[in-house]
Amino acid sequence: MATKIRLQRHGKKGNAYFHLVAADSRAKRDGKFIEKLGTYNPVSNPATITINFDRTLYWVGVGAEMTDTARAILSYKGVLFKNHLLKGVAKGALTQEEATKKFDLWLLEKENKIQAKKDGLSKASDNERANRLKAEMESNAAKAAAIEAKANAILEEPVVAVDDAVEMEETAAVEETAAVEEAPAAEEAPAAEEAPAAEEAPAAEEAPAAEEAPAAEEAPAAEETPAVEEAPAAEETPAAEEAPAAEEAPAAEEAPAAEETPAVEEAPAAEEGASEE
Description:
By secondary structure, this protein is an alpha+beta fold. The protein is built from 6 helices and 5 strands, in the order ββββαβααααα. A hairpin with a 2-residue loop joins β1 (3-12) and β2 (15-24). It is rod-shaped, with a radius of gyration of 71 Å. 11% of the residues are buried.
């Protein structure tokens, strides 16, 4: 049967780790295996690899096949380079001491590279942490400055409000003073205008009364002229014309006089008629 060095998957989704095993090539990936050779954790940085170097070198020496990932892992750990040196010793190209010396030198260089990578990763992590802390400090300082500015603005607002209130009070006082000064002038102006009107009102009322007085006096004269011939008509005419004027005191007093005058004049007329007969 063909033996293959490959990885078996273990762990959870997103957090997988693998076992390096020597298994039958016909078996399932995560099925039966012949021997466990090591572990591989790709989640860590750098990746964590632990193997049984001698047993892995044995299986590589007897011709076990390797998957691509398993080959990269064994090359990283120096198994393939060690197998190459052992083949050179077997052919007589170099001695065992020379092969061991070369392998130790290669292993030292590899360890130095790995350590340099770890140091670089650690330094990058420290720089990232320092930058993050610096950015956080700057953000906190900016927030503190904003809070302080807001607090100062709140403290300054009452002073401005007090100044505005004082200015508003002064403005209101000036307006009230101006209003008080204007009020008497406004009251005196209508009084001055009403005084002549009050004086003109009685004059206007007296003028019709003066005109009515002659009219009342002339009324009896107008009645006396037709009273000689038409006494009854003379009596009716003044009564109809003087009915609205009955409310006035002078017209009421003059009405009896107008009625009595025709009666006196009719008596001689009646006597003259009797003498002619």
